[in-house]
Amino acid sequence: MGYLVKLEVFEGPFDLLLNLIDQAEIDIMDIPIAQITEDYLGYLRRMQELDLVVSGDFLVMAATLLQIKAKMLLPKKPKLDENDTDDEEDPRDQLVMQLLEYKFYKEAAEILKNRAEQITVFPRVYPEPSEQKPPVFANPVGDADARTLANMFAQVLSALEESKKVSYVKRGLSVAECIGNIRLTLLKQESVSFSDLLVHRDRAFIVVTFLAVLELVRMREINAVQKHDFGDIRLIRR
After folding, report:
1. In the list 68, 103, 144, 218, which could disulfide-bond 224, CB 3.0-4.6 Å?
2. Residue 151 and residue 54 in one domain
3. Nearest Cα to 209, choosing from 218, 221, 219, 200?
């Protein structure tokens, strides 16, 4: 008697990597490359055992992971002076940036998709004229409509472009920590400009900040308000 083996399907290598990272509850900013490489190759082996075609993108990522793993096994250059700073680039940096960018693209697309589905499922209905005021329903994404989210997204892309002009400084800031920082800011003041949150022009900080804002909007802790197109976006405590 045969048995059925199910293998989860992923959109691409970054989608697979993010899933493995989430399952292992790993900090995306400090990926244990040996563990994640083994998990990734294990998934590819299972695909081959099931006679599934492994696309070139997945194989390229496998080679990238093995290359990073090999670089991390190399001995570090000895410090000539005790005052020397450890400014050697981490071999994982580029991969981390690519994963973070992929993640926030995916999160942004999901929010916009849900917003579009809400408009489709709950079309605007115009009631018959009545003296009684119609009930007010809470918007699940606050005042952050699709256009506002798109403009926020544009600001992030612009900030990321600017970040290419400066040297990258690795930061251990997670999305959860960034959410906590935004909450503290909004405890001291009622609102904050979205652009003010992007003052640090390194790619990790920008991407993590955008993900944190999206999560706070989703949890209805803040409203994102934009008075006119391409104007400043205010994040207001609810």
Report:
1. 144
2. no
3. 200
CA distances 22 to 152, 157, 178, Å, are 26, 25, 18
Residues 193-211 as b or e (16 or more Cβ within 10 Å = b): ebeebbebbbbbbbbbbbb
- Kindly state the average pLDDT of the residues 183-200: 86
Q: Is residue 48 located within the same domain as residue 158?
A: no
**Within a domain: residue 6?**
no
102 shares a domain with 36: no
CA distance 101 to 90: 18
Distances (CA, A) of 145 to 89, 174, 217, 221: 40, 26, 11, 15
Q: Which of residues 188 and 89 earns the better pLDDT score?
A: 188
pLDDT digits (tens, 9 = 90+) for 82-102: 655 555 678 888 888 888 878
Q: Are residues 111 and 192 in the same domain?
A: yes
Q: Cite the beta strand spans of the chain per DSSP E.
A: 191-193, 222-226, 233-237
Do 100 and 209 have their domain in common? yes
Domain count, the chain: 2
Its domain, for residue 163, covers: 93-120+139-237
Query: Do the domain assignments include residue 125?
Result: no
pLDDT value at position 232? 74
Amino acid at 73: L
Query: At CA 21, angle to CA 40 and CA 166, rounded to 5?
Result: 105
Asked whether 13 and 61 are in contact (CB, 8 A), the reply is yes
Q: Say which amino acid occupies 75.
A: P
Q: How many residues does the chain have?
A: 238
Whether residue 60 is found in the same domain as residue 97: no
